Amino acid sequence: MKTSLHFYRSAPPASRRAPCALTIGNFDGVHRGHQAILARVRQVALERGLVPGVMTFEPHPREYFARLNQRPELAPTRISGLRDKLEALACHGMQQVLIERFDARLADMSANAFIEDLLVNRLCTRWLLVGEDFRFGRKRSGDIDLLREAGMVHGFEVQTLADVTDDHGHRVSSSEVRTALAVGDIARAQDLLGRPFQISGHVVHGQKLGRTLGFPTLNLRVAARCAARSGIYVVRVHGLGDQARPAVASLGVRPTVEDGGRVLLEAHLLDGGADAYGKLVRVEFLHKLRDEEKFPDLPSLTAAIAEDARNARAYFAVHGL
After folding, report:
1. Do 135 and 201 lie in a common domain?
2. DSSP string, 112-174
3. Where is the Riboflavin kinase domain (predicted)?
């Protein structure tokens, strides 16, 4: 149920400011737990004539504090880039997203200022849904009780939603998705997300090495700290016509041919090439074939790619596109 989405890096302009039903969070991955929250926001917004909206943060608060404390290893990996996050929020009925920059100003904002400046003045919040353990404001001093007290003063209602669990009773969370992706468990990640893990981006020019080896690829730049494990995957590619295209993809740093360490997603279409430069494509990960390897020479690399392509074709022969 994709809607028209407006997103702002500060307050919506006066012409677009309208009472809203709001939820707050990072929403990395927009997994099944997030989807339950969004469904509730959408339902209440429809019932009460409100704009369904989200307040999210960039960068992730944990990333900000990891940098501040010079502990970059504590920053969470990213399940989805901003484009994919906004696309998912729109697909789940959100019409307004405030992307609030998480910086020293926001980290030091008092809980009362957070409520009055952001929730009341900028977003005209009339109904708010947050997790039961939601904390906000300087040193996480704000909690649900403070929100409810403020709501009585400023005219908004506060509700909480219990955690969503999987079939085994485990909490569905971004951390669980990251763990699955880090070990290459694509099936588990898909179950938590409610859809295949994906990376989208514009096709960029590469070194043309794949073409030289007989396996031309579509190249996408990948955001830093991508949650997915480097490796070779069976994927399908959207955005190159009416139908998805079967492909095999390499996600990683190209250790055989590069030492730069930049992560790249390279997808080889199994049903022929395409004029794709500059196009926005979405790559859905279906199955992990193997980890990334460094080969002693290009002939060894070429043989491995050929085997990967055969295995990907075998996958599609069994599972279909």
Report:
1. no
2. HHIIIIIIIIIT-EEEEEEETT--BSGGG-B-HHHHHHHHHHHT-EEEEEPPPB-TTSPBP-H
3. 192-317
Both 136 and 223 in a single domain? no
The pLDDT assigned to 321 comes to: 83
What is the predicted pLDDT for the residue at 255? Answer: 47
- pLDDT the model gives residue 283: 97
What is the model's pLDDT at position 184?
95
- Domain containing residue 25: CATH number: 3.40.50.620
Residues 24 and 147 in one domain: yes
Distance from C-alpha of 41 to C-alpha of 89, rounded to nearest angstrom: 12
Q: Which residues of the chain have pLDDT under 50?
A: 255-257, 259
Q: Judge if 202 and 150 occupy the same domain.
A: no
Provide the residue range defining the domain that includes 124: 6-160
- Sheet of 231-238: strand order equals 198-202, 280-291, 231-238, 245-252, 264-269, 218-221
Q: Is 269 helix (H, G, I), strand (E, B) or coil?
A: strand
Rounded Cα distance between 291 and 184, Å, is: 9
Half-sphere exposure of 117 (CA within 13 A, CB side): 11
Task: Say which residue the tokens 């990334």 belong to.
Answer: 292
Is residue 122 within 8 A of residue 12, CB to CB? The reply is yes
- Residues 160-182 as b/e (b if ≥16 CB within 10 A, e otherwise) read ebeebeeeeeeebbbebbbbbbe
User: What integer pLDDT is reported at residue 15 of this predicted model?
Assistant: 82
SS3 311: helix
The span from the CA of 124 to the CA of 274, in Å, is 47
For the four alpha carbons of 118, 122, 124 and 130, in that order, the dihedral sign comes to negative
Residue 211 pLDDT: 55
If DSSP codes are grouped into helix, strand and coil, which group holds residue 23? strand
Same domain as 140, residue 46: yes
pLDDT given at position 209: 58
